[in-house]
Amino acid sequence: MMRRTWFLRGILVVFIFVVLGNSVWAVSAIPENPDIVADIVERVSPAVVNIDTLRITVFRSPLAPFFSDPFFRRFFGDIPDLERRIPQRGIGTGFVFRSDGYILTNEHVIRGANEIKVTFIDGKEYQGKVVGADPLTDIAVVKIDADNLPTIPLGDSDKARVGEFVIAIGNPYGLSHTVTVGVLSAKGRPISAGDSGREYENFLQTDAAINPGNSGGPLLNLRGEVIGINTAILPYAQGIGFAIPINMAKSILNQLITTGRVVRAWLGVYIQDLTPEMAEKFGLPEAKGALVADISKGSPAEKAGLRRGDIILKVDGKETPTVSDLQREIRSHRPGDRVRLEVWRDGGRIVLEATLGELKESGTVVPEVQRIDLGFEVAEITPDLVEQYSLKTSRGVVITSVRTGSPADEAGLRPGDVILEVNRREITSLADWEDVLARINPGDTVLLLIDRGGRTYFVPLKAKER
């Protein structure tokens, strides 16, 4: 009985020690200076700016093709309001990183803007112009005509630690200079969502509130350094925010400023990650490597002899166990570089050499997307677009502009029409849309399933060469 009592007392002591130890750790993790967040915000706020954009969308009546015909105009005369210019306003955030007027923000904040207004916390306003933008990383640089501006230092996102406190500053829903605080929840998050519809890699995740309007603002550590660029790419997320690692921006800033765009290497393959079941079918001992699902015509991959069903294991001796790893290795090179690919084919390893091409500015690995022209632009469906066009569906992609005289114009398509299918294939994102277009040739007939006001119908279009 005595031994049991001492045993229970020992367990109690250990329990108290562990609990107290954890409590001490938790307390020590909280900043000792209670004013540290306020001090940082006060210091960096003069360099955080509101970005207001104006886009002009041309709305053309579906009756326009009829009344542009001389026969109809002879009887009915000129019909007014066949074409209207509709202003669309947007909001975002940015921050000054160079005192001579260079501002970092998200590419989707300024995409398609006809006018850009930059406003500082003291009320000073400037007209901005885009000097460089990269849709693939959702990063843009805006320039204003000003000198000796306050700046925020750029930190090192690679050294940021999960669990450390972070501060987000922005203009959510137009509420100027709103501050939220949280922790860095995770690193290296791959995200496929939001305004651009692209697959983003290596995002920082935080529980600091990030909402529409925050996009482009700084995510700061407790040293007042920028470790990320906030982006509201998941408008329906609850308690989850994302930011582009600042090191990603730093790696392309010089190109954006000097040339206006980022030049990247391109191999030209559709790739997917392996599952254990797939690896077994291909006779591969481990589920490591990037499986080639398809190859673009005329691409460096095709010229190098890659085939559908090959599994790329290494690039220049570096292992590529996942799709992200392979993409990262290819993007670390320049167009014209020759790379050595170690490939699994027919149960054995072979080596191929490829001379990399240039990734097109569209941000997709498929250059054929640019070969055809249907005469309209589309966008991922966002809450703003749902409200703007009174959409009845949230799936598919929405037409945002139609060019006069194009196949789409002649077929009566208009902004606000939602594309649900292309050639009987379901469209759920811009990535789906671009993937389908990559397989269409000039002269082909494209069958679209359109949703307009909650009713669906098919529209055939003849694809023209761009």
Descriptive notes:
- The structure is a single chain.
- The chain is α+β, with helices and mostly antiparallel strands and 466 residues long.
- It has 4 domains: 44-143, Beta Barrel (Thrombin, subunit H), CATH 2.40.10; 157-247, Thrombin, subunit H (Beta Barrel); 265-358, PDZ domain (Pdz3 Domain); 367-465, Pdz3 Domain (Roll).
- The protein is built from 13 helices and 29 strands.
- β19 (338-345) and β20 (348-355) form a beta hairpin.
- The model is unreliable at 1-8, 10-29, 193-197 and 362-370 (pLDDT under 50).
Task: Output the keywords.
Pdz3 Domain; alpha+beta; Thrombin, subunit H; 29 strands; single chain; about 475 residues; 6-stranded antiparallel β-barrel
Adjacency order of strands in the biggest sheet: 5-4-1-2-3-7-6
The largest sheet is: 7 strands, antiparallel
What is the total domain count? 4
CATH class of the largest domain: Mainly Beta
Overview in brief:
This protein is an alpha+beta fold and 466 residues long. The N and C termini lie far apart (90 Å).
